[in-house]
Specification:
This protein is mostly beta strands. The chain has a single domain (20-51, 97-241), classed as Immunoglobulin-like. Helix content is 12%, strand content 43%. It has three helices and 16 strands. It has helices spanning 8-18, 97-108, 186-191, and strands at residues 3-5, 21-33, 38-50, 64-65, 76-81, 84-89, 113-120, 123-133, 138-140, 153-158, 162-166, 195-202, 205-209, 216-218, 221-228, 237-241. A seven-stranded mixed sheet has the order 7-8-3-2-12-15-14. A five-stranded antiparallel sheet has the order 9-10-11-16-13, with no helix packed on it. Strand 5 (76-81) and strand 6 form a beta hairpin. The chain is globular, with a radius of gyration of 21 Å. It starts with a strand and ends with a strand.
């Protein structure tokens, strides 16, 4: 039957349902930050799109019913957005080919994505590289068209002379950053696919970092290397002191 959602809670559930939880598979990723705030970031490898099981509104959510629909029609739900009804087919929400191809198209239009290939079975092959100057925070990936909701890596400016690097997507604990209804569902399965290496190089002062082997001296200054597996529960994190 068609169901009418009027509450804010139902609206939030609908927005979460339309979002896409993407997580790393097998990958190599690098981040270079210079003391003068110049930076370069790369990601090459797999991105997996989860089907977000468990995000459908519960049967108790409906508050008003409309007339019955023909038995052979697709199961549809109705929501009010800015005072207008929007219908979507629930059978097309989870992992259908059109949604996955739409994600690939949205990402390929964004600066930095040198190639985006949809390989089937909710798996993408990504080649991403970008450089710039840290005058503002940086997130990867973030795309409003593809409705990506969890960045793998976040570079944040902290005060006048510090930069914090945190990579919540490069740990098996990333499902704690997902919407509450997604936790304990597809996130657990996605964590099993984690297989990568994240390398941070810098000539800036390292204020703190959480790799137990510490920083290695290299030609570019210092290097911190995190090996990411399903057993990696702590997100790679480092704080650097850079020029004002």
């Amino acid at each position: 039957m068609a169901v009418l959602f009027r509450s804010l809670g139902a609206m939030a559930a609908l927005l979460a349902l339309s979002a896409c939880l993407v997580t790393p598979g097998k990958f190599e990723s690098t981040l270079d930050i210079r003391a003068d705030r110049q930076f370069s970031f790369t990601y090459k490898g797999e991105i997996l799109a989860s089907d977000m099981k468990g995000l459908e509104p519960s049967p108790a959510t409906p508050v008003e019913e409309t007339e019955p629909q023909p038995k052979d029609s697709a199961y549809t739900k109705t929501a009010f957005t800015a005072g207008q009804e929007e219908r979507f087919d629930a059978s097309n929400v989870h992992g259908d080919e059109r949604q996955m191809q739409g994600i690939a198209t949205a990402l390929s239009k964004e600066k930095g994505f040198r190639s985006v290939r949809y390989m089937g079975r909710n798996r993408f092959e990504i080649d991403y590289a970008i450089s710039g100057r840290l005058t503002h925070s940086f997130l990867f990936p973030f795309n409003s068209d593809a409705k990506i909701i969890l960045p793998f890596v976040a570079v944040e400016l902290r005060g006048d002379d510090r930069v914090r690097v945190k990579a919540p997507g490069y740990s098996s604990d990333f499902d704690q950053s997902a919407p509450p209804m997604a936790q304990g569902g597809s996130g657990n399965d996605a964590a099993k696919a984690l297989d990568g290496v994240f390398t941070l190089t810098t000539d800036a002062e390292i204020v703190s970092q959480n790799q137990e082997d510490g920083a290695q001296t290299v030609a570019q200054g210092k290097r911190i290397l995190w090996k990411i597996t399903p057993l990696t529960t702590e997100a790679p994190t480092a704080t650097l002191r850079v020029s004002r």
